């Protein structure tokens, strides 16, 4: 279930990015994107309404899918932490000091 929701989430988010990038900028937007000047690929008003509706629908689907993903992740969590799964600590190696030159060393039997 989680995999299906993730795939749907990726498709909806890619579609949302594509639809938003196809829209014409009506504001200043730092002077980029043709802001209000004539021309452009999607210059008719009908296409703008379709893109606005599509953006709204994809945005609602994105938020609904996000909520579903959170619910499914919460149900699958089983109330455990990652630290609860640690069975034992790693054994510590004892550091020995050689009598001859005084340098520390690890034991030979690892």
Please give a structural write-up.
This protein is mostly helical and 110 residues long. The chain has a domain at 2-29 and 41-85. Helix content is 48%, strand content 4%. The chain is built from 2 helices and 2 strands; from the N terminus they run ααββ. The protein has helices spanning 2-22, 45-76; strands at residues 96-97, 104-105. A two-stranded antiparallel sheet has the order 1-2. β1 and β2 form a beta hairpin. α1 packs antiparallel against α2 (45-76). The longest helix has 32 residues, at 45-76. It is elongated and about 90 Å long. The mean pLDDT is 76.
The percent of residues in helical segments reads 40-55%
Q: Strands across the major sheet, in which order?
A: 1-2
**What's the total number of strands?**
2
- Unreliable residue stretches: none
Content-based structural category: mainly alpha
C-alpha termini separation: 45 Å
Query: Count of DSSP helices?
Result: 2
Rg result: 29 Å
Largest sheet, in brief, is: 2 strands, antiparallel
Q: What coarse outline follows from CA principal-axis ratios?
A: elongated
Order of helices and strands: HHEE
Average pLDDT across residues? 76
Our estimate of the beta-strand percent is under 5%
